[in-house]
Amino acid sequence: MESKVLMEEMNWEEIRDAVGSGKTTAILVSGATEQHGPHLPTGTDTILGYAVAARAAVQLGNALVAPVIRPALSEHHMGFPGSFTLSWETYLAVLEDCCESLAGSGFNDIVLVSSHGGNVAVMKAVTPHIAKKFSNRVRIHIVDFLRSSSEESTAFLETFGISRPQMGVHSGYGETAMMLAVAPDLVKMDAAEKGLDDEAFYEPDHIPRSQIDSFIHGIDHFTKNGILGDPRGASADKGERLMEIAVESLVKAISNVLG
Amino acid sequence: MLNNVIMEEMTWQEIEQAVEAGKNTAILVAASMEQHGPHLPTATDTIIGYALAEGVAKKLGNALVAPVIRPGLSDHHIGFPGTLTLRLKTFVKVLEEYCQCLKRHGFKNTVIFTSHGGNGDGLTAFVPSIAKQLAPDMGLLLVGTMEKSALSMQQFLAKHGVTPPKAGVHAGFAETSIMLALKPELVTMDKAAPGLVDENFYLPDTIAKSQMDSFLHGIKSQSPNGILGDPTGSEAELGKALLKLKIRNLTEEIELNLNN
User: Fold this and answer.
1) Cβ contacts (< 8 Å) between B1 and chain A: which residues?
2) Degrees, nearest 5: CA angle B130-B135-B140
3) d(CA B225, CA B166)
4) ipTM score of the complex?
5) Which of residues 21-50 of A touch B (CB under 8 A)?
6) What domains can be seen in chain B, in order of their start residue?
7) Which of A2, A233, B69, B215 is deepest in the core (most CB within 10 A)?
8) Chain A CB contacts of B66 below 8 Å
9) Is the pLDDT of residue A22 over 60?
10) Which chain B residues have a beta carbon less than 8 Å from that of A80?
11) pLDDT, tens digit (0-9, with 9 covering 90-100), for B210-228
12) Which fold has domain A7-258?
């Protein structure tokens, strides 16, 4: 009970008491319901979003985790069955409605986070608008742990000879290892196979261009199996360390914005 | 895993193969994230929604379960911390966009029902216009209207000596028993206490007015602890039977409508 941080597993009195005793920050994660290759479930980003946010909230000690928003923005994955997407207008409306409800629950700060790269650009674009709308009731912040943890995660895997294109950006070694650490029963390692292995695609300087191309042409234009990376050989112990890196990065980022 | 029907737990290839093999009916449940008294978690309707959808999909044999829609329409519960709600127009857009996605993936029918009473009117009002957009590629079927499902539960519980005010309509004996069957670790039974147990609130002829009052004035004005009913003495065994009954009712209604 002491370390309960997922609002949806708590009753309203527990939430009231937690907020009353100083857990006045809500972490509002945007996840996704979208294809993750032939070996990971469509709930992957949502599952990892809950896991990273819950661990971060426990470490922070002053935060609770709101229900993860999903589906979110996955139009570029719609070529694959099982992907769901909202339009950006609806996604914005859902974000606003959730912030409104969280403000009503007594939180002082809401931190917007995304566990799915495809949400980040729109989330960044709309956050000032949302923050302004709620400015006299609750402070709205945004942090990007996917980005802030990416260099350390890459460096960690490189020490084991796992390259940037293997680690990947979608269902590759990195994400698969994290899923093996968090929800191994939903990972089918015997179906894991190589996805897009074009090195240039993953170069840090090229990634923004690669992402825009994905949005324009759809992920299926770049990879038939839906993987950007190479999940083969991924292991739970490396995934556990990647989780730690992600959580540390999120905790630090949230501490920074809360001041 | 082989017979998994929960799309979020499946890979895209498994979903594609299942749809091609004839599992081309999607079950789409609208639920909520809202207070459920001092003893049940705010995800109660969502947890029950998944369980009903999974049961129905397996019984139908030709269906998969879409991610449950939550938050839903819970403005009347907003006086209680932890409740999240969508505005009606956001809810309708979310519903419409889910359906568009299901159509794009080749589902022939989407069956919609709610595990949260507060969504009922919104669904009844807007499903027809969404259905019109999707025709003729995908059919939309709304089943399990609140009144019918509530009545069937009441009759079952009456046989076990549980009156309508005890069974309740929100976090009472019925819902608490179901949660004891599904997720006992999230139920705090020592916090369970009677909520609103005024008989007149639950009469077949007054329940619609009672619900309208909830929408207008908020549940808090009717029940300070958030419970409409009395969860004390709830039993997992009865909860299991209630789930079975609901799943059977829904499945029969779906089969009747899709086969005609």
Assistant:
1) 185
2) 55
3) 15
4) 0.94
5) 33, 35-43, 46
6) 7-258 (3.40.50.10310)
7) B69
8) 84
9) yes
10) 12, 16
11) 999 999 999 999 999 999 9
12) Rossmann fold (3.40.50)
